[in-house]
Each structure stands twice: as structure tokens, then as C-alpha cells.
Amino acid sequence: MTEAAIEEEKKELAKQYKQLLKISYRTLTRDDKKLIRSAFDLAVDAHKEQRRKSGEAYIFHPIAVAKIVAAEIGLDATSIAAALLHDVVEDTEYSLEDIERLFGTAVARIVDGLTKIAHISMSEDVSMQAENFRKMLLTLNEDIRVIIIKIADRLHNMQTMDSMPPDKQRKIASETLYIYAPLAHRIGLYNIKSDLEDLGLKFTEPEVYADILSHIKESKEEQDAYIDAFTKVIKDSLDAEDLNYEIKGRPKSIFSIRRKMLAQNVSFDEVYDKFAVRIIYKSKPENEKFFAWKIYSIVTDHFRPNPIRLRDWISSPKSTGYEALHITVMGPKGRWVEVQIRSERMNEIAEKGFAAHYKYKNKEKDDGGLENWLDKLQDTLENSEISAVDFVEEFKLNLYAKEIFVFTPKGDLYSLPKGATALDFSFHIHTEIGMHTRGTKVNGKLVPLSHELKSGDQVEIITSENAKPTANWLNYATTGRARSKIKSSLKDEKKQLAEEGKVVLARKLKSLKLNLDENTLNQLVVFFKVKTSLDLYYRVGAGIIDNPKLKDFAASRSNAFISFFKNRIRKPDKPEDVNKEEITEKFDQLVFGKNEDKLDYKMANCCNPIPGDDVFGFVTVNEGIKVHKTNCPNALQLQSNYSYRIMPAKWIDSTQREFKAVLTISGIDTIGLVNEVTKVISNNLHIDMKSVHFDSNDGVFTGKIIVVVKNKTILTNLVDNIKKINGIDKVTRV
């Protein structure tokens, strides 16, 4: 590099440093400036040899991230210093110990958190990627600032991604849309969320992005003229009330316009709410609510409101801390316009999220529900049982959800994601309550656990010591927290059954003169086509692999010659991962409807679903049931136009499936007989009784019982035990 260029860079650095201090949202003390200065100097020194792909000095990246952290997010000096140093440990000679010695534990802890997650692997291996996300989210609990700086880092990377190869751009942009934009939304950084989404779209669908952007630029003048016309109508009334306010128009983000175009299947010109009008007023905290409703009343005096589009987030703020009054009114030229009414404080919280809460700190709402959210998240995080891919899925569920507000019988208010069920609510209150839920009442009426809650519902949970999660609960729960707890509980139960199965297997093999050693175990795993030893034990414990099947295995093994060839053809001697600590599922059977019926079906050619995909059934006119993936290109059209022909469908593991059986019983009627029969059924843990019906006629009775069992062995045992009851004459399976 030439002398002149080096001089130019030095000048630019000095300018950037001054700018950083000037644009900081927080008031910086002398010590703060000192800390930032020394972090700045160290970062400049550490990165002096590095250049970015675009050719500029690498140091401009940490500075840009620090500027986003200081101005747009508004974090403190510790965070600004950590942002300047975020790549130092990763890329240079400096160690974490050096950072701690020079800048203290808080900065070192944040830098450590950022170093752990700096390089989310760009490989195609999705579970590796998910593992990294899990690692990243675990640092949330140590210090929320880690994740906020990571979001700022991601924003700057997205802004400067032009010099990267297209495949890399697509990869990073998809990841941004998948996890970073929802994270920014959840922490209340709405502006950054919009930037991340728009940039994500720019690199995943460049033509679409460019097209919408040019349309927005073209319609800018028209939009400004419209806002002027709108303002003129209400200006005099607002001025007459001596209000100190400003009215701004804000175009909706490119990404949200794109989403509307897709959802409503319309062109850009047909999207009616391409921008929102924002009225921001100055007010003392105690008068905020009063003024908000005063402005509401003035706006609705002049423009007719849409009654179902009123959102009052001042009385009950969103769990991100967002407060505002939103109304949609019929504006000039007969167009619907969204009007957002906010005080200056509310506006800052909407733009800065977390940081603004600290500026306006008061005892009750010091972090906009962030702590509460982190506690809930911690529950999912601690659940190490769940696979990384599941984990990221469950976590995503909690990020973008719209909210509803429900009450407990005592009148406490809770916010839940839209679409949450009564069962979700029980887990939301406390994991233990969720685990022991027996029933739920909504507004005083008993409802199923799958009942979808609405805003304003009063919900009471009925618990019982004996109640515990069943596989069906996964169909009733929608929130990440509830689902991960249920999955974990079911896994524990399966593991317990597997432990019992191991003992049973050893005993049964002994009677067949075989030992349960590693060699036999590998052969069993291959013979029964399961994946892990735990799968094998579980299926023995559940009675799926029974005596006759084990005898078949022993017979095949004794014929060594055949078995030698079979094994050569089938699989290598030792399957990989045989000792993995998990019970896997082989999705091999498709069932339909609430009762999980087996029906004939065909796979749709448009999306070619494979076992394990999320699917639904569509009843065609001539070809029976066609199965489509839920994200099939035709799914939206089918679901909106022919919703009555849609059948819920899901893949299950036939070896873990439960079956319905109907038993008829007859005998001599004696006192307490029904009690005896139900006792025999309920004493067996692996049987679920669905319905019971008894008729007595002059001392003789007949009965019909419907039970759900895992396999025939359990049913045979049940029939034998019922026959032993005094007075029972016949028990037959229908």
C-alpha cells in the first residue's frame, strides 16, 4: 500500500473513533470513554495485518459493529468495547486471558460468548449448524448482550456481502432469515429485524427485491402527498388540544410487502397498506395513556375506524416490551391506513428495544419481559435430551408468534403465542403443573386439552398426581416450551421401559441358551432392523419383540452358514451408532384423521412426500386420497379453496404404534364386578381404556370395553386376567 493510502486510512480511523463516541445513545462517562479508547487501540493493533474480501482494512468491520451497538441498539460502554474486540480472540494472537486482564471480566465474558459462536459452520450438515445455534443460545443466559452484539455483527456482514460468491450469500442470507431476524424481533429490535429481513430477501431472491424496491421508490412522492393530505385533515384538531406531536409516514419493509403479496396472492399495486402513519407525541409518563386515547378520539372523529383492527398495547404491552395504540382507519381516497399512536418513550422502546427500557428504567418494567422470556427459554435450553435440530425448531416457535392474553382464575394476566392451547397454558404457568395436567376449564367449562385459547379467556388447570404426558399430547401442544418438556418426559418413559426390556431380553436369551454379549447384540440389531441397542431393549420392554420372534432369531443364528451369507448381504457386521443413547423412530406408516385410521392413499406428484415429512391428505374426486407435503406449492390453494376435503395426516412408527381393540364380556352379575374389571385394566400401565359399557339383565350381564394397547401380547394378558375374575363367563375380542 502507498504512504498516501496508509495516511488516508489513519485519518479515517480517527474520524470513525470520534463518530463512535458522538453517536452513542447512552451518555458516556469519562471512564466509559477510556474503556472504549483502549479497546479501540487494541483492536486496531490486533487487526492491522488483516484485510476483508472487499480489500478494505479489517478493523472497519469491528468499528461498524460497535457503531450499530452504540447508536442503533443503544447499548453501554462495556458492549461497545466488546463489539470492538469481538473478533480479536478468534483471529489474532491475543488470548481471552489478555482481554480479561486489560478490560475486566464483563468484556471478557461477552467476547468469549461471541468467540464460541463466531463461525457457524457453513457446511451442508444441518445438525452441525443446529448444534452451533444451540451453543449460541446457551450464551443467552450468561449475558443477553452476547446475542445482541451477534445480531449487530450479522447486520454489518449482511450490509457488506456484495463481494462474496453467490452460494455463500444465499447460505448466510437464509440463515439470517431463519434465526437472526426472528431473534431481533423477539428482543424488540424492530428496525434491525426489518433491515435483516430486507437484506435476506436481497440475497435469496434478488430479482423480487429489486422489483419491489423500484416500485417503492416510484411511489415515494405519491406516499408523501397522501400523508400530507391525511395530516391536513387532523392537524387543526390536534393543535387545538395543545399537543406537542409529529406525524411521520413509514413505508412497510420490502420483506413484509413481499409476504403480503404472497399471502394475498396480489401484485405490488394491490397491496393496500404499503405504509403506516405514525403519530408521536411528547408527554409526561403519567399522562401517556390519556393523550394516546385523546389522539385516538381525534383521528376517529375524522376517519372511520375498522373496529376489528384496534390493538391496544398500552394497557397490556407485548412481551417484547412494545407499547402503542394501533388503529386502521378509512383514509382519504377510500384507502385503509394503519395509524400508530406512541409517546416519545414508546417510540424509543420500539426502536431500541432492550436498551431504551434501561434508559426509562422503573421498578416494575425494567426489561420489557425479557427476563421472563429468558427464563422460559432457559427451560428449553436445559433440556439437553432434545436433538439440536428439534431444539432450533422448538426455539423458532417462540420467536415470531403473535400474542393473546389470558387470565388465571385469580385474575393474573399471562401472554401466550396465538394458537396456544389449554395444555400450552398449563406448561406456561409451571412445568410441574403441565406434567400433571388432568383437565382444563375455560371460562368455567370443561374443555379438551387441545382447546385453542382466545384473548380474554379465563383458564383453570386441573391437576392430578397420577397424570403424566402421553404421545397424544404432542398433537395438543403448540409452544416450544410445552413440546420440548413433553418430548423429554416421553423419552424418559421410553428409556425406563428400555431398561426393563434389557433385563427381560437377557432372561429370554438365557432360556434360548444365548448370552447377551456385544456380538449377539449387534446381530439382534441387524436381525430386527432397528438402529440402536436402546431401540431393541425398548421394543422388548414394550412387548413388540416377543418370544416367537426371539425364537426365530435363535433359529436363524443356529444355522451359521445361512446366517453368514445373510449378514454379508444385509449389513456390515456391526451397525454404526449401535450404542447411541436414543430411541429412534422409523416413520413407515401413514395415518389419517383424529383417530389415526389406516386408509388407502397415493403420493402427490407435485411434491413427492417421503416418510417423516409434514403432510396432509386431500380427498380427490376420482383418485381417492392424495398425500401432499404441507409446504407443497399447491397446498395453500387446496387448503383455502377445498378446506372441507383436507384430512390431517401424519407419519408414525408402526413398531411404536398403539392399537384399538374391542372386548365383549359376559357373565353373572355380582356387586362390584364392574369395579373389578376396570381395576384389572387400570392396574396395567400399558393400557389406555377409551370406553366402557355394561348392561345387566336379570342377574346376567354383557359388557363392551374399548382399550388401546401397544401389541397383542399385552391384550392377551389382559383377556387372561379378566377371565380370572369371579363371575366372568366369556371374554372375546371383536
From TrEMBL:
Annotated coiled-coil segments of the chain: none
CDD domains: HDc, NT_Rel-Spo_like, TGS_RSH
SMART domains named in the record: HDc (SM00471), RelA_SpoT (SM00954)
GO biological process, one term: guanosine tetraphosphate metabolic process
GO cellular-component term (any): plasma membrane
MF-aspect GO terms: hydrolase activity
Organism domain of life: Bacteria
Record's keyword terms, sorted: Hydrolase
This protein's record includes keyword Mitochondrion: no
Signal peptide: none
Ranges for domain TGS: 402-463
UniProt name for this protein: Bifunctional (P)ppGpp synthetase/guanosine-3',5'-bis(Diphosphate) 3'-pyrophosphohydrolase
InterPro entries reported for this sequence: ACT-like_dom_sf, ACT_dom, Beta-grasp_dom_sf, HD/PDEase_dom, NT_sf, RelA/Spo_fam, RelA/SpoT_AH_RIS, RelA_SpoT
Family matches, as Pfam families: ACT_4, HD_4, RelA_AH_RIS, RelA_SpoT, TGS
Function: In eubacteria ppGpp (guanosine 3'-diphosphate 5'-diphosphate) is a mediator of the stringent response that coordinates a variety of cellular activities in response to changes in nutritional abundance.
Protein family per UniProt: Belongs to the relA/spoT family.
